[in-house]
Amino acid sequence: MTTKPTIVLVHGAFADSSSWNGVIARLRAEGYSVLAAANPLRGLDADAAYVASVLDTIEGPIVLAGHSYGGSVITVAAHEMASVKALVYIAAFIPAEGENALELTDKFAGSTLAPTTVSRPLPGDTAGTELYIRQNEFPAQFAADVPAHVADNMAITQRPVSLAALQQSATAAAWRSIPAYSLVTTDDKNIPLESQRFMSARAAAHTVEIPASHAVSVSNPTAVADLILLAAQK
């Protein structure tokens, strides 16, 4: 009997693990064990190391999915990890070695994220800044196809990302040796459509395109779950 993989979900910037709730419900209904990792959003190397430590606690095969900046994290975290059988990118960055999220965003025109963000200094002795999307601009920028009351709550509960995390380059690209799947969101205002297409093609990912905002795991959890299930059943 074939063992079903555990599905691990990694959220991106300006979101948290609750953004996967609709996806989780569908995956569990299909009999899969699911874990939504809390991405620290502090730095790519540290975030990837944390996710890798979570993966080390799981017995058996794993399907690893990442949304947005979470795609960068899973790309590094899964490097040389034999238990990871597939990578699923949801409106996500798919960096090669030496690339970071900001340069991939700017590779093609179309992102309107930068003008909607505000930076705040990190507290204590830690140098640097973290970024938020202004609450009043969050729905249109991040979640235009999400019900207004849900998008408003997402704006309030958003997790900030350190600027350093978006600037830090990937040290590995697990998609070079692990099968990749990509859900491309054609109405995305964070990661330009052409950037998503470029990265997906380069990774030779099985790619599905749908008209959706960046918050596709909230607005269309069925499409997201369907792609993850496809990866899990291969």
Short description:
This protein has 234 residues and is an alpha/beta fold. Helices cover 35% and strands 19% of the residues.
Architecture blueprint of SSEs:
Layout: E1 6-10, H1 21-29, E2 34-37, H2 44-55, E3 62-67, H3 69-77, E4 84-90, H4 101-106, E5 117-121, E6 129-133, H5 138-142, H6 148-157, E7 161-162, H7 163-167, E8 180-185, H8 193-202, E9 206-210, H9 216-219, H10 221-233
Parallel strand pairs: 1-2, 1-3, 3-4, 4-8, 8-9
Antiparallel strand pairs: 5-6, 6-7
Helix pairs in contact: 1-10, 2-3
Order of strands, main sheet, comes to 2-1-3-4-8-9
Helix content: 25-40%
Order of helices and strands: EHEHEHEHEEHHEHEHEHH
Q: Tally of extended strands?
A: 9
Count of individual helical segments: 10
Form type = globular
Q: What count of structural domains?
A: 1
* Class computed from helices, strands and strand pairing: alpha/beta
What value does the Rg take, in angstroms?
16 Å
Summarize the main sheet: 6 strands, parallel
CATH superfamily: Alpha/Beta hydrolase fold, catalytic domain
What is the class in the CATH system? Alpha Beta
Distance between the termini: 14 Å
Q: Mean of residue pLDDT?
A: 97
**Second-tier CATH architecture:** 3-Layer(aba) Sandwich
Which fold name corresponds to the CATH topology?
Rossmann fold
Which segments are poorly predicted (pLDDT under 50) over 5 or more consecutive residues? none
Name the quaternary structure.
Answer: single chain
Report the sheet-strand fraction. 15-25%
Protein name: Alpha/beta fold hydrolase
Domain AB hydrolase-1: 7-226
Pfam family, one: Abhydrolase_6
Keywords: Hydrolase
